[in-house]
């Protein structure tokens, strides 16, 4: 039979060139060897690859000769029968053989190379071949994807969640990525609740947000006075203010000083400039102010003006500069020097009571938990030396009641009514020798004493409340109004806890210094000496905002609190007088809001 | 960048190409440097409470300048589509783009007040830094790589490289026709090797790839004339492949920065929008 072989190839311009070949045979061999009937220069083929054999009128059989399978109509096989009428396609390596019948009735095999010889890429994409365009992610698509992701995650989602009803706990927080920094420790609980302060969209944080929690924080002073006291801003300040006002950011908001989102630490203290702006030249703008100008602790700060409580019912308060060397009437007679001496009888007595040396400050003054001191009390601090015992009877020591003069009078009266004078033994010897005047006078004295028992009580009472008496040693005594009355009273006593109610002072950080470093107690001979240190004393260690080497930086906020309420001024004893109230100075115009 | 030694005379200038970096005797470099130094000086003298941040008056000012700069710098993408000459030439514009982009790095950093965290604000800053860094990379490769590129290609154009490769492949195909199975299979592999099939990372790294061609040359059993000829051709193909790979690497390095610079710029503008809106939304 006749096989017609048509080999198709393409010219460079894409034109198809077909070469025809007729072979009369019943069996054709196909392969890379030049001896094959159909020679295909294809390295994927074996030298002798396959054979095509005629089987009857209408069928040919294709058989693999090198045990390498070929594809027929998409199936991989080593042997296939193809009907000439229906036709079929055989794939050998990079060549396609289409087998069928031509018009003349001969068996037609059309051969076409379908794979490239070279793996080097084809010409149509030469332009992009050498660039990154095919292998790098496309620029435009990447840009769109990134932009949409960012806008969705950081803008759309947070804004949607702002207007959505509060979500269940544990839901992801959409606006977390908006927070420019951690909140201070005090506000850590609001970390996930932005709306607590940022209450309305595009509206700067207003004081109303702060006030919803800080209900008892009051103004520093009346707003009108505050406004009057603040300095007139310069051109730059005025410009800034008008811009701020245009954006609904009025000056004087809480957040102007209490800046948030600065990290999870304590909120930074308000800088000194904030105070100095007004207080640096306050007298000028607010002539009726009681305060001296101040803008830096080292450079410009008035002398301390302690609030002095003078004993009385109630105690009276006054503010006096330490420059005027004020005295304080605390109702006591108490020389510090006497008690702190290292050589006198007091020191000796302390030794007797088992102390190694003389008395020290802490023998009477004990710390409280707030960095101050507890009031001195008779029972705890004085009585070990200053005994109020006055007699021994019925196997017990009789003691006067401290802090209640009426009880003292009543007790002494009762005692003398019940107990006569002790009878001297010499009276009862029985026989009297002539000229024994001693016994006679003793007896007479005893007799008189027995008769005068009431008078003796009165004398003792007067003695107790008089110089040399137990009360008079320490207290000022108010004598009875009427001459014969025994209605003695003790003047009220003030023990002041705090002389500087508008400043913070804590003794604890100062523990490394001795008491006498600041308080001149060892040389004070009078109870009315005010032992408060002057500002110069503090300045030996404390500098202002710009300390020299070795000094301590102390800004206004080191001692002063902007929203401070007046501290406790005085504890007043004795206990039967009510302690001093918290005191508001009219001059401060503190108003709680 | 090295500064020009002295003023060039007009005659020399006429013969000498003045690049975009040197444009108008570094006019924009000077403007950018002065602006950056001024911004730093004000930052040092400005002493806000409690510390410098984007929310002080100076912070808002720097932020506004920075945002406008970003938009203007982005406009180069539109501007570059038209070439013009003279004062507002594309070269002048590109020169300004480079130096003001460097100034933006200073302005943006000062605007942060060095307060960074895991939030949208720092995201915008980080994207800005990434864009500027990729731009700097671009400036550097544009000034260094073209010489290496032409050194490597010799006299060949890219099309010639491809034709060369195909021609070697055709010869290899013809030469290998008489070869036996194992040898033929090696050649088939070598012919199938595509020099352009490598991924992005492989192109950039420039590691020498030992593909099918290298393997064929290693293992080919050269015992007769045909296989010796095939071996020689394999060696030639290997040389050609090495040259093409080096060319591809240099071109990839030359182009890759734009694949960061452009999409990240758009991402930056999105992040900038989110940053600005969020700041005023929660004011």
Mean pLDDT of chain B: 85
Return the structural class of chain A.
alpha+beta
How many strands of chain B? Answer: 0
Largest interface: A-B, 62 and 66 residues
> Counting H and I runs of at least 4 residues, what is the number of helices of chain B?
11
Strand content of chain A: 15-25%
Output the number of helix runs of chain A. 17
Share in β-strands of chain B: under 5%
Low-pLDDT segments, ≥5 res of chain A: 570-593
Q: What separation lies between the terminal Cα atoms of chain A?
A: 119 Å
Shape of chain B: elongated
Shape summary of chain A: rod-shaped
Largest sheet of chain B: none
From the alpha carbons, calculate the radius of gyration of chain A and give it in angstroms: 56 Å
Helix fraction of chain B by DSSP (H/I, runs of at least 4): over 70%
Strand order of the largest sheet of chain A: 2-1-12-11-10-7-8
GO cellular component, one term (chain A): cell envelope
Domain FHA (chain A): 29-92
Protein name (chain A): Cytochrome c3 family protein
Domain Tetrahaem cytochrome (chain A): 187-279
Summarize the structure.
The complex is a heterodimer of chains A (593) and B (283). Chain A is of the alpha+beta class and 593 residues long.
């Amino acid at each position: 039979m006749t096989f017609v072989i048509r080999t198709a190839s393409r010219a460079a311009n894409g034109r198809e060139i077909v070469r025809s070949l007729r072979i009369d045979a019943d069996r054709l061999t196909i392969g890379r060897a030049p001896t094959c009937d159909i020679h295909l220069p294809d390295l994927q083929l074996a030298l002798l690859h396959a054979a095509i054999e005629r089987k009857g009128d209408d069928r040919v059989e294709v058989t693999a000769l090198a045990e390498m399978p070929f594809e027929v109509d998409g199936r991989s096989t080593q042997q296939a029968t193809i009907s000439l009428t229906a036709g079929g396609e055989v794939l050998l390596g990079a060549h396609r053989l289409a087998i069928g019948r031509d018009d003349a009735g001969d068996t037609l095999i059309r051969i076409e190379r379908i794979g490239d010889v070279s793996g080097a890429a084809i010409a149509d994409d030469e332009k992009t071949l050498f660039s990154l365009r095919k292998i790098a992610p496309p620029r435009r698509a990447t840009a769109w994807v990134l932009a949409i992701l960012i806008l969705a995650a950081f803008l759309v989602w947070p804004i949607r969640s702002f207007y959505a009803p509060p979500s269940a706990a544990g839901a992801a927080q959409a606006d977390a990525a908006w927070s420019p920094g951690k909140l201070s420790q005090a506000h850590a609980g609001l970390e996930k609740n932005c709306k607590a302060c940022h209450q309305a969209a595009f509206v700067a944080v207003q004081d109303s947000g702060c006030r919803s929690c800080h209900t008892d924080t009051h103004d520093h002073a009346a707003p009108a006075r505050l406004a009057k006291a603040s300095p007139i801003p310069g051109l730059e300040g005025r410009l800034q203010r008008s811009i701020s006002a245009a954006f609904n950011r009025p000056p004087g908001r809480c957040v102007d000083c209490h800046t948030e989102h600065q990290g999870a630490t304590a909120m930074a203290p308000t800088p000194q400039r904030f105070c100095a702006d007004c207080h640096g030249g306050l007298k000028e703008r607010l002539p009726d102010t009681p305060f001296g100008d101040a803008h830096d602790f080292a450079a410009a700060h008035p002398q301390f003006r302690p609030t002095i409580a003078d004993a009385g019912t109630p105690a009276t308060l006054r503010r006096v500069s330490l420059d005027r060397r004020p005295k304080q009437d605390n109702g006591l007679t108490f020389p510090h020097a006497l008690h702190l001496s290292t050589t006198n009888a007091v020191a000796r007595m302390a030794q007797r009571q088992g102390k190694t040396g003389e008395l020290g400050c802490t023998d009477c003054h004990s710390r409280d938990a707030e960095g101050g001191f507890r009031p001195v009390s008779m029972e705890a601090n004085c009585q070990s030396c200053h005994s109020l015992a006055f007699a021994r009877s019925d196997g017990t020591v009789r003691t006067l009641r401290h802090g209640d003069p009426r009880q003292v009078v009543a007790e002494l009266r009762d005692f003398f009514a019940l107990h006569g004078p002790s009878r001297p033994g010499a009276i009862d010897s029985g026989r009297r020798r002539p000229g024994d005047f001693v016994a006679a006078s003793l007896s007479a004295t005893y007799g008189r004493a027995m008769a005068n028992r009431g008078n003796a009580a009165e004398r003792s009472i007067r003695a107790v409340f008089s110089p040399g008496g137990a009360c008079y040693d320490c207290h000022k005594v108010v004598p009875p109004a009427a001459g014969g009355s025994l209605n003695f009273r003790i003047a009220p006593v003030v023990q002041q806890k705090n002389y500087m109610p508008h400043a913070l002072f804590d003794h604890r950080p100062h523990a490394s210094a001795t008491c006498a470093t600041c308080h001149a107690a060892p040389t004070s001979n009078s109870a009315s000496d005010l032992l408060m240190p002057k500002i110069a004393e503090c300045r030996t260690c404390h500098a202002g905002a710009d300390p020299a080497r070795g000094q301590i930086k102390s800004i206004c906020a080191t001692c002063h609190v902007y929203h401070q309420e007046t501290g406790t001024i005085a504890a007043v004893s004795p206990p039967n007088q009510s302690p001093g109230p918290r005191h508001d100075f009219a001059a401060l115009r503190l108003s709680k809001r | 960048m090295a500064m020009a030694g002295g003023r060039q005379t007009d005659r020399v200038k006429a013969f000498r190409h003045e690049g975009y970096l040197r444009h108008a005797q570094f006019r924009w470099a000077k403007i950018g440097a002065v602006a950056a130094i001024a911004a730093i000086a004000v930052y040092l003298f400005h002493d806000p409470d409690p510390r410098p941040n984007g929310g002080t008056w100076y912070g808002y000012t720097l932020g506004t300048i920075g945002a406008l700069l970003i938009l203007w710098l982005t406009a180069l993408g539109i501007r570059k589509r038209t070439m013009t000459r003279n004062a507002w030439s594309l070269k002048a514009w590109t020169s300004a783009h480079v130096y003001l982009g460097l100034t933006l790095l200073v302005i943006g950093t000062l605007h942060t007040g060095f307060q960074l965290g895991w939030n949208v604000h720092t995201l915008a800053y980080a994207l800005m830094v990434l864009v500027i860094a990729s731009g700097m990379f671009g400036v550097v490769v544009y000034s260094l790589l073209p010489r290496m590129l032409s050194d490597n290609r010799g006299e060949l154009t890219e099309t010639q490289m491809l034709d060369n490769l195909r021609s070697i492949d055709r010869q290899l195909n013809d030469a290998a026709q008489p070869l036996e199975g194992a040898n033929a299979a090696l050649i088939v592999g070598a012919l199938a090797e595509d020099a352009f099939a490598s991924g992005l990372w492989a192109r950039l790294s420039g590691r020498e790839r030992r593909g099918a061609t290298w393997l064929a040359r290693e293992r080919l059993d050269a015992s007769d004339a045909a296989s010796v000829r095939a071996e020689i051709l394999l060696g030639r193909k290997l040389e050609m492949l090495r040259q093409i790979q080096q060319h591809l690497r240099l071109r990839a390095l030359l182009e890759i920065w734009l694949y960061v610079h452009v999409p990240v710029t758009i991402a930056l503008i999105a992040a900038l929008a989110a940053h600005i809106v969020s700041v005023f939304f929660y004011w």
